[in-house]
Amino acid sequence: MSVTSRRVTGVLLDIDGTLLDSNDAHAQSWVEIFCRYGYDVPFGRLRPLIGKGSDKLLPELTGLDSEAGKGKQLTEERKQLFLRDYLPSLRPTNGARDLVKRLRDDGSRVVVATSSSDDELNQLLRQARVDDLIEQATSSSDGESSKPDPDIIQAALKKGKLRPQGAVMLGDTPYDIEAAARAGVLTIALRCGGWWDDAALAGAVAIYDDPAALLADIDRSPLAAGL
């Protein structure tokens, strides 16, 4: 279905890299915890994997299962390290709050669709200065597999009572785009998550630098079909 034949009634929002400038911090916290456990994984290898959940990232890099034994312990320690040492200094992406407020004010159903865990979710939203604007959210607990599998996108559609053709995903990684596509949802991509080479975001229906740039163009963007 083409963009012009869709009527957008809902927006699915990623958080990390989309609303919060956190992708580098996630990567660095993984590097630090891997070092503690004796794994030498350089930042440059890890950074392109941010956007996948730990259920994907950890086995790919170490062969460990994030849900069992050493892998589960490592994953939990990494999360606590990120929340304690990295999250407090992070800033929202440019225009994040203004964009979310505009979407709400214009009547769009807004649902967060993130690979982060439940106990990270509220803290991430507070740090992004949008926690008071978000009423519906799905996290890693709402799907068996994280992005780029479509589970979390499908859960967000269900929670928001949205049809795939009536929703648009707003994300910043190739994994957001793939997960949304597998759920039948179009994606608007933002470069502020660190993928400045548009070839990596080629599956998106539109690409903007950050939320502020999308907001400035919102009346001409794919969102205008429903706003």
Description:
The chain is 40% helix and 11% strand. With 227 residues, it is an alpha/beta fold. The protein has two domains: 148 residues, HAD superfamily/HAD-like (Rossmann fold, 3-Layer(aba) Sandwich); 67 residues, DNA polymerase, domain 1. The longest helix has 18 residues.
Name a few traits of the molecule.
DNA polymerase, domain 1, Rossmann fold, six-stranded parallel β-sheet, single chain, alpha/beta
CATH superfamily of the largest domain: HAD superfamily/HAD-like
Count of strand segments: 6
The N- to C-terminal Cα distance equals: 19 Å
Major sheet attributes: 6 strands, parallel
Which fold name corresponds to the CATH topology of the largest domain?
Answer: Rossmann fold
Put simply, the count of helices is 9
Q: Low-confidence spans: pLDDT under 50, at least 5 residues? A: none
Rg calc: 17 Å
Structural class: alpha/beta
- The largest sheet has its strands arranged as 3-2-1-4-5-6
Mean pLDDT: 93
CATH C-level class of the largest domain:
Alpha Beta
CATH architecture of the largest domain: 3-Layer(aba) Sandwich
Tally of discrete structural domains: 2
The best one-word shape is: globular
The H/E string reads EHHHHHEHEHEHEEH
Strand content: 5-15%
Q: Assign a percent range to the helix content.
A: 25-40%
